[in-house]
Write a structure and sequence with these properties.
The complex is a heterotetramer, with 2 copies of chain A (164 residues) and 2 copies of chain B (174 residues).
Chain A: H1 2-23, E1 28-33, E2 44-49, H2 62-79, E3 84-88, H3 96-109, E4 114-118, H4 122-127, E5 130-136, E6 142-145, H5 150-158
Parallel strand pairs in A: 3-4
Antiparallel strand pairs in A: 1-2, 5-6
Chain B: E1 2-11, E2 14-21, E3 26-30, H1 37-48, E4 77-85, E5 102-111, E6 117-123, E7 126-128, H2 130-139, E8 149-150, H3 154-160, H4 163-173
Antiparallel strand pairs in B: 1-2, 1-4, 4-5, 5-6, 6-7
Classes of the chains: A alpha+beta (164), B alpha+beta (174).
Bound molecules: adenosine-5'-triphosphate (2 copies) and magnesium ion (2 copies).
One adenosine-5'-triphosphate sits between chains D (12-13, 31, 33-39, 63-67, 69, 152) and A (50, 53-54, 59-64).
């Protein structure tokens, strides 16, 4: 059990460092066991230093923490690749720069696996290859909007949703 | 292998039959708050087999059946089908170990007498089981309970959870 | 102690119903004690029904839950009004329609008390009377951007932040 | 009564002296992730007196002092001043019970020997205490621990907390 965990950690930790550096250029991230000799007696720390900052997870802002967590999610996905991925509003507290970095990493990974991303952000809608609009016309019944292309989607990201 | 379509019938806020065609590459789903976007994620997990109904944001399976909204009539059953393409393109092996170009995984729940729920699984229209689904999907790397499905709020949870909880996440992966 | 709680609940609950109907026109919200006879043995339920939907807090979507929680925050603030308020990214998982409803309620309340709202959303930036930009030029030191007016702020909501 | 300015010195990511002028009405604060927006909220709570340093997102008070970032030098003290206008406009009474048109509330922490922290309070430049601050502010309705200050994540927490936790929120209000 201990060997399995340390073996998995070694791979996921490398993935994490690589992906964090990709999402936050100039930053550095590491996964560290609190108690490397007895891993089951301690936790797993996600240590991240955004570019230009001092280090420490508890100093990170809301958006900086999300970027570290996203790097960890991608690191775990790389350990056990899946044919398709579903992401639900992972970009909600990111500024435009970070939302763009995240969406473009999804686009890159969408070359080898299918990515379905629920998003309200214009930046992510612009990067996507295909667009699906879901609405409920006030009666509580969900329906898909047919002929919902890129233009309509980007407009949604911009305008008040009511027009849908 | 990729998800070709999602066929829903009376699943949560989707009344009647609704088919959502999907493509390879990067697909964005958008719409107003409460329109039903996250219910699509719940439908995918419902078929792939999450650890518990809690992760489908429902207190019990009954809450997955269309409840009629404010003025409509509640349905008595709901169904969700994941349609996967499974071609042996480029001469490789099929990712889902089944000799078919298209694989349909269907899960149905029906409201029985005294509010009990009957759950049924079908694989390309023939009866199947949760265990067969799980075996087939795990071999293809499409787990229902891994981080290939990131639900609303999962990122924030992962960022603020304790070190021990995060270690357990990694143990699940191992 | 019990009288005090029931008296406060009566006022806050009325505030909640009024504010929820204002934020979600056509919807209805109520605060209910699980155990009205012995309030300290049960919890306080926030019951909300968005327009056109069946009721129940656990059925609500992420954005619908946030609108109910915001109505509760305003309801508590009305019980004990303060000269100033600070809100930090309360609009992050709202669609444009709900973000607009929230920002315009803040603007309305800003006539009688000072409102300071940290936001990344264009809709909220457009509603504000004054705008403050904060940045860290890559060296980790926060500084205020002088001469940051409405135009610059709205542009920030639109463009990638890097330009800041 | 309203906040006229926030004067920070070596408070968290704000190196040296930074003054943020504020106006009446609706003010929006924006900027990139990690720029220091929420640190402004922490500065307000630092002076008003939160229940604990945990709500200032710091494990201890030392973490509130500018740490130099990647290449700079850490400071040895930090200071935050809330400047309130307190005029008796329209002939009414002053909201803060102090006979001054402007009220400056300053809290300072200094790093002493062996990492211990000295904390000091000043009211219009004369020595004061946390208790005097709290008495003055509570009378004016500007509590440090109420929902007049809604920190990042508070809305989501309030939406997902248990019914019992929500009852306790109401008890605090009472
Ligand atoms: N069994 C059911 N029958 C009918 N409607 C249901 C059922 N279960 C959930 N709903 C409705 O589905 C809606 C929630 O949908 P969902 O969570 O998918 O929204 P969303 O599009 O993800 O919104 P957000 O952007 O706020 O996250 C709720 O309004 C709820 O009333
Ligand atoms: N004592 C300190 N000295 C220097 N920098 C600090 C200190 N404490 C926190 N920081 C820095 O402040 C930054 C966080 O700032 P803050 O949380 O205000 O960001 P924000 O603008 O709210 O971002 P977001 O939009 O992601 O919420 C972190 O990058 C952290 O390194
Ligand atoms: Mg959702
Ligand atoms: Mg913040």
């Amino acid at each position: 059990r201990k060997e399995r965990l340390t073996a998995v950690l070694e791979i996921v930790s490398d993935n994490f460092t690589r992906t964090y550096a990709h999402l936050q250029p100039g930053g550095h991230g590491e996964l560290k066991l609190e108690n490397p000799k007895k891993p089951f007696e301690g936790g797993l720390e996600m240590w991240a230093r955004p570019p230009g900052k001092a280090s420490g997870l508890n100093l990170l802002s809301g958006g900086e923490k999300s970027m570290a967590a996203l790097a960890l999610i991608f690191a775990i996905q790389d350990y056990e690749p899946s044919p398709f991925y579903y992401f639900d509003e992972v970009d909600q507290n990111l500024d435009t720069f970070n939302a763009e970095a995240t969406a473009s990493l999804c686009k890159l990974r969408a070359q080898s696996a299918q990515f379905i991303m629920v998003t309200l952000r214009k930046v992510s809608l612009e990067m996507a290859d295909h667009h699906i609009g879901i609405t409920h016309a006030g009666d509580g019944c969900s329906r898909m909007i047919t002929d919902f292309g890129r233009e309509a989607a980007i407009e949604v990201g911009d305008a008040a949703y009511v027009e849908l | 292998m990729h998800l070709v379509a999602l066929e829903l019938e009376n699943f949560k806020s989707f009344k009647g039959e609704v088919t959502i065609p999907l493509s390879e590459g990067f697909t964005a789903v958008t719409g107003p708050n409460g329109s039903g976007k996250s219910n699509i994620g719940d439908a995918i997990q419902f078929v792939l087999g999450p650890k518990s109904s809690k992760s489908l944001r429902a207190q019990n399976l009954k809450q997955l059946i269309y409840n009629g909204g404010e003025k409509g009539r509640a349905a008595k059953f709901c169904k969700a089908t994941l349609v996967f393409s499974n071609s042996s393109r480029n001469g490789g092996r099929r990712r889902l170990k089944l000799d078919a170009d298209e694989v349909r995984l269907t899960r149905t729940i029906k409201l029985g007498r005294k509010d009990n729920i009957n759950s049924a699984y079908h694989l390309n229209e023939r009866p199947s089981s949760a265990t067969e689904f799980r075996r087939l999907l795990t071999e293809a790397g499409a787990r229902g309970d891994g981080y290939n499905i990131v639900l609303q709020g999962d990122v924030t949870q992962l960022a603020i959870m304790s070190g021990r909880a995060r270690r357990r996440v990694l143990e699940d992966v191992a």
